[in-house]
Structures are given as structure tokens and as C-alpha cells.
Amino acid sequence: MTRYQHLANLLAERIEQGLYRSGERLPSVRTLSQEHGVSISTIQQAYRLLENLQLITPLPRSGYFVSPRKAQPPVPAMTRPVQRPVEVSQWDEVMTLLDTRGDKNVVPFGSGSPDLDQPGLKPLWREISRVAQHQPEAVMSYDMLTGRQELREQIARLMLDGGAVVSPDEIVVTSGCHGALAIALLSVCKAGDIVAVESPSYHGTMQMLRGFDIKAIEIPTDSQTGISIEALEMALEQWPIKGVILVPNCNNPLGFIMPDSRKRQILSLAQRHDIVIFEDDIYGELAAAYPRPSTIKSYDVDGRVLLCSSITKSVAPGMRVGWIAPGRYYDRVVHMKYAASSFGVPATQMAVASFIRDGHYHRHVRRMRQIYQQNMETYTCLVRQYFPCGICMTRPQGGFLLWLELPEDVDMVSVSKQLRLQNIQIAPGSLFSASGKYRNCLRINCALPPNERNRNALKQIGEAVQGAMEHFAIVRGT
Amino acid sequence: MTRYQHLANLLAERIEQGLYRSGERLPSVRTLSQEHGVSISTIQQAYRLLENLQLITPLPRSGYFVSPRKAQPPVPAMTRPVQRPVEVSQWDEVMTLLDTRGDKNVVPFGSGSPDLDQPGLKPLWREISRVAQHQPEAVMSYDMLTGRQELREQIARLMLDGGAVVSPDEIVVTSGCHGALAIALLSVCKAGDIVAVESPSYHGTMQMLRGFDIKAIEIPTDSQTGISIEALEMALEQWPIKGVILVPNCNNPLGFIMPDSRKRQILSLAQRHDIVIFEDDIYGELAAAYPRPSTIKSYDVDGRVLLCSSITKSVAPGMRVGWIAPGRYYDRVVHMKYAASSFGVPATQMAVASFIRDGHYHRHVRRMRQIYQQNMETYTCLVRQYFPCGICMTRPQGGFLLWLELPEDVDMVSVSKQLRLQNIQIAPGSLFSASGKYRNCLRINCALPPNERNRNALKQIGEAVQGAMEHFAIVRGT
């Protein structure tokens, strides 16, 4: 640690401890220089760092002041989506989001990609390299239809962590969790069917419904406890709903973990109405708390839960290794796997199996849980600093996604277009509604390390939001 | 070449040239030994080799005789499937076929896997190893939705060889040709739709129709010129058919290449009736003739041909690299790719792109074309020797699949069960019909090198067929 960083730390601690209060003037550069026996420029560097961290604010010709600490914004209230089945729209907006993928000039706050710049991934790509060299025949050949045995064994072990006892022979390997959900939906539903979803809900899943001509009914969802069981029950009494798609652990985009009691309640509701639960556990391994939360599958007694997951968020998307434990739908899922996607890539399956077996997986996930948790705290602070008042924000219990709710008037779809010109990509909330609700919301990917570039981008987002709010204030004449 | 192999060659040539006629007695071992100045055992080895090659037959205590040459069996006649849309059945039989995959004890004559024990594949697995080591970030990341640019560029080049001018931006990378066809079908058809297919037709495609609840109408098909355009036209006049799935080049399972004039005819028929053509070109690169045959896509003027292909048969299935050129259906196909299968595996895409770009692909395919052509000739000879009379057999113009038609009575489904106990897997013809026709047919994978083990297996198949025929002769009392 350099001298100025050391000094900045010291000052930050004093601010944290309340020795310097919000709005208070800090000692002058000259005073500090004499007090600590360091050069003027060292003090200036330290102050600049604290300024970047938004802890202090310079006032021209008056010196530095402790930045005002905003109160923690409230969490979003229970959502109130349209209470009837609708066809999913918003494809063009999703395409816009996907189009910037891979463009290094763009800050991808709207993406759902995990942090891949991590040493913990080294054993994985080394293993790919190794299997290609040492088992070329297996790498070149057709896979087994249900996926490689050694991988299914490791997946069964992971499922145990979530409380589900599933044998490797009851698991079907798929192309990511997305492929798992697609096969699950195609196996159970037909065109014209209705499926219930949390609201807001992951846009990829909803575009899937659109693709398969399945209608979505969006159910009110609480940002801390999940889908409203009462509202789902009402919908089940009113409509011929085939199943419900849930992300009960580290929900995308709201970040909640459904309490276990509610998981059991929703399962018994599903039993009473004889519907299927499509459980998406893709973020489940990234829960802040240890041990990881249980899956709904772990309470499933009659095989009506199709548990879908992957290593996309916990490890890396490029492996395309996902899975389904389809319960009583096993035979249909195997046939649909053959029909819709056929075989998988042996190389990545082999590498992932070794990665889990040799302990690298758990080590990596443990570390990433911490990193994402820290990132989310940092971004939460930064949002408080950069964004105007009057917003609501989730308190995620895992994963790496933050959800912000801005005042009703703010249209994040147009803000996102404006930000795109500044090479910043965001995911406006409307992507997460079948009917284009939540235009005043946005999801932020906190897997992006909070470095200077990304902090600046967040600041620009905050400014754009501020601009949009001022615009509306003028329009309304307030 | 060892001495006995040299001698065997010499004798084989003499038989070929008619110096020793069919049924004629060959010189004794002693005579030849003296004539060529080699040991008795060398002559015995040479004769044993010729015996294995079924060119000569030993008669106890009488010496060796030139095996009788059977006449080339006729090709199968135009097929006559049921002329109405049916739901595809036969899934259990397909599963039986898939179940043996990867079992080293089983001789997989029923599979469609190419020969993977080839030095030409070395640059490919080396490249996988290299990209994992040198571009780990790209390997770990989400792919582009339509597939990697450098791969699409190479695919566009390959399409040119088949006469189709398609830009890289009009191509969507998929998980093999199977994934391509699945996305193509899901993009164009709905449950309940009717699609026309060649008869016989690849079982994977038909199980796809079953999975998506699409009915198949099987159209009479000639084993040398392809689908009957007249019969297709009649069907189009009678039923609301959405499209037709064709494997016009090196058809699976019949091996024909549709003449160009017929390709144009079928396209203009499709235009008149406004239907879609799903063109499966997966074996097209393995045509015996050079340059490779044209695709129907190459004549397509209004974008109604969805050209699907992959490197599965020409290179290796384990890469899962396939593609669609969807013409006017591009937007729908991109959405359906997102809905049904989402992103691909970057590692194999990157490796395959380099493999093609650096010339390894064309070198490998050139060599495999020759090998498969030789194999098919050898297996054709062997079938003539091992199988009873009264069979019909295709004359494939490429690929590596032979199709045999046995007398009506022979039930290859039960023969296949019997052979399974002998660790031999075959594909009974009924898999290739939506309605379970062609029980008296079988498809043979000639990518299996005709070594002793595989020859013996073929011999056992021949004997089992012989046994089935005799059984029926007894039952019928003839």
C-alpha cells in the first residue's frame, strides 16, 4: 500500500467512525501535510481517492467536506402486474441488449454475465485443454443423450447441497439452464397453454414462452419473500394454468430467497391444483448465507418439480453445462432433449465434471459469493450517492443483481437508448415484464468489478436518471 | 507390405482379371510355394487373407476354390409409404439404438457416427486445447446469439462450394444439424401442422416431428433420384402441408444425390404451393464426385429454403457445430434460437473456425470421401457374400450409409434384438418410417473400418438374416 492510500484509508475510517460528520469540513491539505509529515501532493492524492469513493466533496476555494450520507432507500413494494394471461412482447428490446455483447467498449451493466476475470477459473480452462489432448476420441464423439455419467454424478452431489436427493440416472444434462428450461417447457406445455411467472421475471424465460406460443400470467411478487401465494392461488382458480416458473433462490431480478415455509406452501398449492413447478436454481449457489438455501425440489414428493440449473452464473457461461432433474417427466424430457437439442458437447462436460470433483468448483463459488456480496454493497452505496432521491432498491440475499425502482415518470427505455450512445448498456425493467411494465425500473449487474471505469459508468447512469426526472418535473410544471 | 500380403494381392488381381474363374480350383499350397520360392506358411497366410476377403473358399481335403461371384443385387424400388399424415411412432426403438452408444463391446453398425480414428482430426483437438489455453476469456464467456463471426465467415465459404451465396450475417450457428433442423421447424411450424418427408427418412428428424407434435406425411422416394415429385405434388393438393424436409445430397438412409434438374423442379413446386423447404445437407460434403453437388438453396430466389448442416458427419459429432441459412425466416430463427437453445459453446466454434480456415477441413474431408467410398465398396462385396440372395441394396453416391431391403417376411426388428445379444447393433428400417414400415430393411454404417471384427459382425448379421428367412420358409411351409 502506498503512502497516500494508507492515509486515505485512515481518513475513510475516521469518517466511518463519525469522527468527521456528514457535511463537516476536513482539515486543510497543509494542516494534514504537517500533521503526518508527508508532502502536499500525497495529501492531495489521498483526498482525490476519497473524492472518487464519494466519501468527500471538494468545494472550490473552501476545501474538502464529508459527503452527506443518504439514508438506505426503501425496498420496492409488492408488484402489481396485469392479472390475466398475456402474450410476451419486448423482443426487440431484448435483442438490443444482446447486440452489444462482446463489444469491449461497452460497459455491460445490463448483462447477466458473471465475473470471468478470476484465477479460480484457471483449473477449468486447463482441464479443457487437457481433455482435448488426452481424450480426443471422447471429445470428438457423440455424447450420451442424457449427458456424461461422471458429470451427472457430480451434479447429483451439488443438488444434495440444496437438499434434493436425486440419483445421477434421474438427471438430464442440457445446454445451460436456458436449454434446461426450454426442454422442460416443451415437455410439459403446448402452444396456447398458460404458465404463471413471478413479476418481474427473467426476460430470457419470457422470450422462451413467446417462442413456444405459451401465454404468461404475471403474479405479484414481493422483493423480499417472493411470489404472492395468495395471488397465485387466485389466478389458479381463475385460469387453466399449466405450471409456474419460479426462481426461488437469489431471484433474478429481485434477489430474494423465498423462506422455506413459503417454498413448502407453494408446493402444496401446486399439488392441490395439480400444476407443475419449473424451478430455476441458476443463482442458488451464490446465496450470501451458508449453507446454501434449499430448493423447492428438496420438498417434492410426487415428482412435480422440474429442477433446472447450470454453472453459468456460478462458474462460466461458455461451458454451456446445465441440467434438469425432471421428476415424473423424465421420459418426456429425454425424448424432448433428443427432439429439440440432441446431444451435448463432451469436452466441456468432461472438464466441468473434473472441476467439481477436484474441489475447484466449491472453492471458486465460495470466493465468488464473497466478491459479489461485497460488490453489491459497494454498488448500493454508489447508487445512494449517484442517484437522485425517491428511489427504491432491493436488498439481494445472493447472486449479483440489483433492482432499482425509480419514480413512475422515469422511462428507463429511453434513458437506456441515451446511455447506449455513451457506451453504457443497461437493462430497463420493461424487459422483465411480459406486458412491458416496470419501464421505471432497471437491473444492475454487480458482477462488474466496481473499478473506476464502472463507477464512472454508474455515475453517468445516475446523471441520466436525474436528467430524466428533471425533464418530467419541467413537463409537469412542478 | 509383407510377403504374404504381396502374394495375396497378386492372386486377388488374377481372380479379378478372370485368370482364375469363379468356382475354379486354385493351385495347391505346395505348388505355389515352389513357384514363388516362399515358405508353405507364407502361402497359407496369403490364402487365409483371401479367404477373409471372401474371394476364395476352402473345401476340406480339396484345396481352395474361387468363391462364386454373386451378381450385384438390384437397387430397391420406389418406396410406397402410407399416403396420409401420421403421428411418428418408433421412439422406443430409437432409444434402444441410442442406449448402446459408447459401449466399446458393441459393434455399432446401426449408428450414424463417422470414423473418428483419423490423423486428420489431430489439428482440431489441438486447436481446442490451444484456444482454452490462449483465449480463456472468450472460452468462458457467453457466445454471440447467432454464433461467432469467424465461424460464420468460414461456413459461408463452405456454402459457396454447394453453390449457395450466403453472407456470414445470414447464418445462425446451432448445436449440430439436429439443432438447426429443430430451430428451423419450431420457427416455421406449429403443433398440428403437417410436414412432408422422404420415405425412408432419418429417424432423428422424425422424432423431432413427434416431439413438436407435427404430423409427417411420407412421400414415395426412389433410391437413386430421390423423392417422387409427382407424389409430393399430389400430397400438396390433398393436404395443408407446411413444408418438406429433404436430404437431397447423399441421402440418409438411401445415399442418392438428387439430380440438379429435380432439385429445381422441387423448388418450383414449393413456390407454386408456397411451402417451405427444410434442406438437410449434413452428408453433402461427403459426395463421391468432385466438385460436391449443389444445394437446393443454391437455386433459391425467394428465401424459402432453410439450409441446415453441420460438421458432424464430415468431421466430428462432439463439436456440436451446425448452422442454418434461414433465408426469409432469419428473424424468426434468431428468436427461436434464443428461445429454444440460447447460446453456443465458444471453444468448439473457435476451434472449428480455425480448422476450416487453415485448410485442415478440406484436407480431411477429401480423405474421408475416399475412405468411405472404399469402405462402401468393400461392405457391398461383403454383403453379397454374407447375405442370402433376394436382397436389394442401394448404390450410395456419397456419405457412408448402405440400405438393404430383404424379403418382405424378414423382421429386422426381431433380428436386431437377437443380434444385440451378440453385441452387434443394427438400425432396423422401421426406425426410418413414421408408421413403422421397412421392417424388412436395415441401414449399415460403412464408416466402421472393414477390419476383421467388423467383417465378422457383418457376417453374423448375414447369418441372422439367413436364419430369419429360413424360419419364415418353414412357417410358410415352402
UniProtKB/TrEMBL annotation, chains A, B:
This is PLP-dependent aminotransferase family protein. Residues 1-69 form the HTH gntR-type domain. Keywords: Aminotransferase, DNA-binding, Pyridoxal phosphate, Transcription, Transcription regulation, Transferase. InterPro entries: Aminotransferase_I/II_large (IPR004839), HTH_trans_reg/aminotransferase (IPR051446), PyrdxlP-dep_Trfase (IPR015424), PyrdxlP-dep_Trfase_major (IPR015421), PyrdxlP-dep_Trfase_small (IPR015422), Tscrpt_reg_HTH_GntR (IPR000524), WH-like_DNA-bd_sf (IPR036388), WH_DNA-bd_sf (IPR036390). It comes from Atlantibacter subterraneus. In the C-terminal section; belongs to the class-I pyridoxal-phosphate-dependent aminotransferase family. SUPFAM superfamilies: PLP-dependent transferases, Winged helix' DNA-binding domain. GO terms for molecular function: DNA binding; DNA-binding transcription factor activity; pyridoxal phosphate binding; transaminase activity. CDD domains: AAT_like (cd00609), WHTH_GntR (cd07377). PROSITE patterns: HTH_GNTR (PS50949).
